[in-house]
Amino acid sequence: MHEEMLNSHAVSCPYCDTGFELLVDASQGSHITWEDCPRCCAPIQVQVAVSAFSGEIEGVTLGRDDDVV
Question: Cβ neighbours of residue 27 under 8 Å, at least 6 residues apart?
Answer without folding.
Answer: 1, 2, 5
